[in-house]
Amino acid sequence: MIINLPHSQAEFMARAVRDNIADMLSTLPKLLHKNETAQIHFYFANLSAMRKMIFPSLPEAYKSWLDKSNPDSLNKLITRANKHWINIAEQILCIYKRYGKNTQSKIETLINNNYL
Predict the structure, then answer these.
(1) pTM above 0.90, yes or no
(2) What is the number of structural domains in the chain?
(3) Does residue 103 sit in helix, strand or coil?
(4) Are 57 and 77 in contact (CB under 8 A)?
């Protein structure tokens, strides 16, 4: 699917959804569990602009973590985000299966209407 969306907004968005899933399932929970403060800061410092755009509640939860030194806001968001981004990915795949190479605008619309 990604090959058929070369260098388009839809490609960057689909990649951001994929990265959000991976990070909510594994990366961020592990960093929080181990209380790897420096690595958590590094993780957030390296979020792409696209990921921040489609997932504005993630930087907000990070700010809350910074202010309160409490991972609760991030942990709650991770639980909610897992379901959300997996659902969006499944919808992207359905759109692609249905429309093939002509999915760019449909994928962009789906993601633009489902920021978290």
Answers:
(1) yes
(2) 1
(3) coil
(4) yes
